[in-house]
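Running this now, will post back.
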Amino acid sequence: MEILDQADALRKKRAEADAKAARILPALFYKMFGDLVTNLKGLEIKPLSEHGARVRYGLGQPPKTQDHGVSLIRATNISRGSISSKNMLFVDPNDVPESRNAFLKADEVLVVRSGAYTGDVAQVTEEWEGSVAGYDLVLTPGEHLTGEFLEALLLTPFIQNSYFANLKARAGQPHLNASQLSATPVPAIPKEQQERFSKLVQSIRVLTKQREKNNSHLTRLFEALLHRAFTGDLTPSGAKRT
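Update: finished.
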């Protein structure tokens, strides 16, 4: 039916737009800081730890999960710069040992430390502040780095392909530890320039949230139309049902 075809075409165009939008942040990073693989700008590169950043382990073995409470962010919730609430687990904050320092602060960065998603990264935004870090690594940027810059850097081919991939290849199974993450090569970028990048990232994220909301509405609309088409409730305008 024409209305169903139009809805499907709109859904496909939205998917194409999403794919293009996903390339914006990597392009912005490249525009502002250059290709770090070739490093034609001659940026000084030194280990992450020498920039004042700190790395710690998450909770590890979590307490008993429940239907409500504080979000427990696991590797399956981390995907290329975003944290998903899909299949999120929850724990009682009183069951989280204070000594583990597992509660997350805004601007920290999560790095998957083991398994198929090793090396995947997501910044902790204000939305997820106070959540509990599961088994993964937690990176605190310190005073010389911003979370947005670190997240984008760790997702570049310079790190994913030239550093993390080499580490994972040496192990029997994909794995990163705190020492390896602390040794990650990081270019010396003035904090002011990082902050300009961060503001642009934050603006893009606002637009992304709105786009995701619109996508959800569009998906529900298409599914409703599809259901009506199969049940015979969807008829051309002005047509009579018998």
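The chain has a mean pLDDT of 86. More later if anyone needs it.
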